[in-house]
Amino acid sequence: xxxxxxxxxxxxxxxxxxxxxxxxxxxxxxxxxxxxxxxxxxxxxxxxxxxxxxxxxxxxxxxxxxxxxxxxxxxxxxxxxxxxxxxxxxxxxxxxxxxxxxxxxxxxxxxxxxxxxxxxxxxxxxxxxxxxxxxxxxxxxxxxxxxxxxxxxxxxxxxxxxxxxxxxxxxxxxxxxxxxxxxxxxxxxxxxxxxxxxxxxxxxxxxxxxxxxxxxxxxxxxxxxxxxxxxxxxxxxxxxxxxxxxxxxxxxxxxxxxxxxxxxxxxxxxxxxxxxxxxxxxxxxxxxxxxxxxxxxxxxxxxxxxxxxxxxxxxxxxxxxxxxxxxxxxxxxxxxxxxxxxxxxxxxxxxxxxxxxxxxxxxxxxxxxxxxxxxxxxxxxxxxxxxxxxxxxxxxxxxxxxxxxxxxxxxxxxxxxxxxxxxxxxxxxxxxxxxxxxxxxxxxxxxxxxxxxxxxxxxxxxxxxxxxxxxxxxxxxxxxxxxxxxxxx
Length: 489
Known about the structure:
Elements: H1 15-19, H2 23-36, H3 43-64, H4 67-70, H5 77-102, H6 105-122, H7 129-143, H8 146-157, H9 163-189, H10 200-219, H11 232-242, H12 256-264, H13 266-295, H14 300-306, H15 308-327, H16 332-352, H17 358-367, H18 370-385, H19 389-412, H20 423-457, H21 461-474
Helix pairs in contact: 3-9, 3-10, 3-13, 5-6, 5-7, 5-19, 6-7, 6-10, 8-18, 8-19, 9-14, 9-15, 9-18, 12-19, 13-14, 13-18, 13-19, 13-20, 15-18, 16-17, 16-18, 16-20
Transmembrane segments: 78-96, 108-125, 137-157, 169-188, 200-219, 334-353, 365-382, 394-414, 426-446
Membrane topology: Multi-pass membrane protein
Main location: membrane
């Protein structure tokens, strides 16, 4: 067991209470280290999320600038390029996440990022469906651990109350990437070079990824005790702060009893079903975004530029929802439902409005960002409501397997014969949004009832309950075993 422990010189006083006086110092350190070093939740994570989104979006930009024609893709082969990526992702999810528990999580993740960039560069050598599909398969395998790595790093550096805003910030880099990618793709469309324009996205983003992977390895710590720029006292403060999570910090022992508990926990199946329903629309939008806007009646150049406001609205929505979830207790599920209602309105507008109403359908497209709010907040529930290192690995791995399955299904519901309206695709989105609302209500009910039941079992009040929960969390007890643990609502 290699779990970081509290400082050896602590007294009988409550170490968490003692650490409160250091909070401002730690917050200042958070900001400074984020700018300079990559930090308490590394800025590498923020930037890498943007880079990751750009890498995945390369294929849609390439399709806009001639890849489909040059590679002689026919029928639904373009959709399958998206689908096969997630087949690889799904195959790599559990093995790679088990590596993260056994080895240094940040260094291992950095190696995968470098290999990912090299594979992205190899896409330029693909001249047919088989070549492109092979590269996409390996891209999926290599990405499998990146987002779970970010989730686990966030739990190791931030308290449960702080996690929603930080997770929203690093996930909002998808929106930033949408804006940057649109600008770059627009510029690529104006290039006049011997090399086909569709290859430039892979060259640009593949090269950036390799460089960033090296930076990630050099700078990103796997837990607070390994942050080289922190003093010993600051490391102590960082560890003491996250003890409040009641989930421990790290543990290298893989425990089969926690695997069994995860599979028997109704929250495991609820959050996976929720993720599946959420990522069916995501898979479709990620793969078809430029083509969807182009189908509204805009030119290729207009479609590229008009996709950028979607990124801006996503950033805004995620930052606002993350702030609210951090500022106010017990509202995460309600924020999720709010985001879904916005996305539902967007889906209905696109599906129901006539083709002549280009502006109305475009507004509907922008409103679809509401489901990304839902996805991020569900991630924060996974971070905050699962204790036990192996159990957390199971939840995170299965969550992203569900993410893969949804992204596999989504593009297949956008049939080329239905272009440009894609009626089946948008109808399926509407159904998924409704299903998610129902699941969120059930999740809230399950957690609220369990909290109430545990309150009745503990006669000593919340302060005693919390102190005991912290102590038991350090012993790698799960949220089910630790009856002093309370679920975040």
